[in-house]
Amino acid sequence: MSTILIIEDDPKMQTGLRDNLEFEGYKVRTEGNGTAGLQAWIDNAFDCVILDVMLPGLSGFDVLRRAREKGVLTPVIMLTAKGEEIDRVLGLELGADDYMTKPFSLRELLARVKAVLRRSERGTAAGSRVRLGFFEADLDSYDATRDGVALAMTPKEFEVLKFLWEHRNRTVSRDQLLTNVWGYDESVSTRTVDNFILKLRQKIEGDPSNPRYIVTIHGTGYKLMI
Which class is domain 3-124? Predict the structure, then answer.
């Protein structure tokens, strides 16, 4: 299930977007101002962000700029009541993936969300090379080395690492890892996630008992720090 963050200060627009996206099967979180939206975006793993330009606190442009500066690569669809070309150009230059001018068709927005998510899935190969200290891995070929020496890793370990890498510098919950890596296998528990994290730390970290890269966020899950 893809998770979408909506940062929109108009209550009616926010509710309409949330209800329609949830009806389509997405998990949705909403925030009503730029400051809270940026914090939620940085602290959590989302598959797509729908971002209004005109927001209290921080503008949508500022939110997008700061997120990209922190290395957050989540696909973004920007919304604005303005139609000037300069606004569209600025949003795209800052790293937006798509742009819609209000008022717009909800059907068109849903289609664009699906398209952005598809492009994101196809585009993960561009960032498939992981380098963490002396550890390196290619997430496409499932090859890994440590200090130049080949490492044996299971496909599931690569999948866990891939999800963490795609959401690097953001907290991912154990439930998110379970859903996205194992699906809905009832035989798998959050303890399984913890065991895989332990195995990854043993292969990646210089001191697995004091991890530098895969850190525990107590009460929530894990974060891959780069």
Answer: alpha beta
pLDDT at 122 over 60: no
Higher per-residue confidence, 152 vs 72: 152
Residues of the chain with CATH 1.10.10.10: 128-224
- Phi-psi region for residue 173, left (φ > 0), alpha (ψ -120 to 50) or beta? beta
Backbone angles phi, psi at 83, to 5 degrees: -120, 5
Reply yes or no: is the peptide bond before residue 103 cis, omega within 30 of 0.
Answer: yes
Q: Report the pLDDT averaged over residues 201-219.
A: 94
Instruction: Output the pTM of the full model.
Output: 0.63
CA distances from 56 to 61, 113, 139, 152, 165 (A): 12, 24, 40, 50, 31
Q: How far apart are CA 191 and CA 42, in angstroms?
A: 25
- DSSP code of residue 123: G
Positive or negative: CA dihedral 110, 111, 113, 117: positive
**Segments of the chain assigned to CATH 3.40.50.2300:** 3-124
Q: Which of 140, 129, 95 is nearest to 226 (CA)?
A: 129
Q: Domain 128-224 belongs to what architecture?
A: Orthogonal Bundle (1.10)
pLDDT at 28 over 70: yes
Please give the Cα distance from 138 to 130 (Å, whole number).
Answer: 6
Structure tokens at 45: 């793993």
Collapse the DSSP code of 62 into the 3-class scheme (helix H, G, I; strand E, B; otherwise coil) and give the result.
helix
Q: Report the alpha-carbon distance of residue 118 to residue 219 in Å, rounded.
A: 32
